[in-house]
Amino acid sequence: MKAKFIILAFIIAALSFVGSTTKENFDFKAKVVPQIKNSIPNLSDMNKASEVINQRLINFFGIPQESIKLDVTDNQILLTIHNVDTSKIHLITNVITGDNKLEFWETYENAEILGYLTKANNFLREKQYPGSNLKEEKQAKHDLPGIVDEKTAERDTRKQYSDRAPLFRILGQMITSSGQPLPSCMIGIADKKDTAQIIRYFKMDPIKTLFPSDLKFYWSSNPYKYDPTKTLYGLHAIKVTTGNKQAPLDGSAIISANATTISGKTDVKIGLTMDSDGSKTWARITRDNIGRCIAVVYNGHVRSYPRVQAEISGGKTEITGDFTIDEANDLVNILKSGELPFKLKIAEASTF
């Protein structure tokens, strides 16, 4: 009996020792490398990427500067974080390699693009290209009773999905019951499962030649607000106005940002302050597009598309886009940290 007691006491003591020495925080080490095709990064861009990583670790996770070590060469960044919570490693790797990007684009009006869409639809119909494989009864399920024109609050009672084939069977037109285009840069709505097919149509060479060369398409990030099924997404007509085909203004021009909840509402707005060059560009864009929409694009999807009422000078503006407070704070942290000069990936990682 005494021997059993001694063995039991030994086991308890051993377990207590293991439990008392279990380490919750470790050092994390990672080799971060650029994802660049057919080019070699320069040391200046590698240093910029290192600084963005450093700021993201501080802004997102509150990691002290003295716990972060970054060794930069011309082809890799060796990152060491001392005393890091291992449960956050997955989040940390996602944040430091995330290609989060905020862009402001000029747009086409729906009325300017509707004719091109009709030509594309007619071409596909004449060539007997297959459209959506939705059955008639399934189409009826997704027919919207109407689209609300946000400016006039009129209802559109036409069928969204008709048998006019093949494009307009899966891309609902933004028109009133009398056939007039609704004022917006949103040129259509589609079920999420049909969005890839629509883009495939637009990439066909005979179709591309029907559209303006400076036109590109972006989908909304959130479902169409008037669709009760939450399966329909808006398609927006973006106008490319720069020689390098990039957005005329992006998050790199932001020097400060903050997220606040609109008083008395659950809506969130993000206040932005731009640098000198960004302020001038923003003033020009808003001056040139009074009465038109500016698309606010985040991570390749349209978050909002406000219509410009007047020139905005001084470099201060606010954006909304059905953000949750967490999403807005994440965007603010991204903007405060700066943009990566290129995509990154983790080549090696370990804890010790």
How many beta-strand elements?
A: 15
- β-strand amount: 25-35%
Number of helices: 10
| Shape summary | globular
Uncertain regions spanning at least 5 consecutive residues:
5-23, 131-164
Q: What is the domain tally?
A: 3
Percent helix, as a range, is: 25-40%
Cα distance, first to last residue?
Answer: 43 Å
C-alpha Rg (nearest Å): 26 Å
Mean pLDDT level = 84
Query: Could you give a short account of the major beta sheet?
Result: 8 strands, antiparallel
Overview of the molecule:
With 352 residues, the chain is α+β, with helices and mostly antiparallel strands. The chain has 3 domains: 24-97 and 341-351, 2-Layer Sandwich (Alpha-Beta Plaits); 109-236, no CATH class; 243-337, Gyrase A, domain 2 (2-Layer Sandwich), CATH 3.30.1360.200. It contains 10 helices and 15 strands. It has helices at residues 2-21, 43-61, 89-97, 110-126, 136-142, 167-170, 195-203, 205-208, 276-288, 325-337, and strands at 25-35, 68-72, 77-85, 102-107, 172-173, 186-191, 215-219, 232-239, 249-250, 254-261, 268-274, 294-298, 301-304, 316-319, 343-351. The strands form 3 sheets. Strands 4, 5, 6, 7, 8, 9, 12 and 13 form an 8-stranded antiparallel beta sheet that branches. Strands 2-3-1-15 form a 4-stranded antiparallel beta sheet, with helices on one face. A 3-stranded antiparallel beta sheet has the order 10-11-14. The protein is globular, with a radius of gyration of 26 Å. It starts with a helix and ends with a strand.
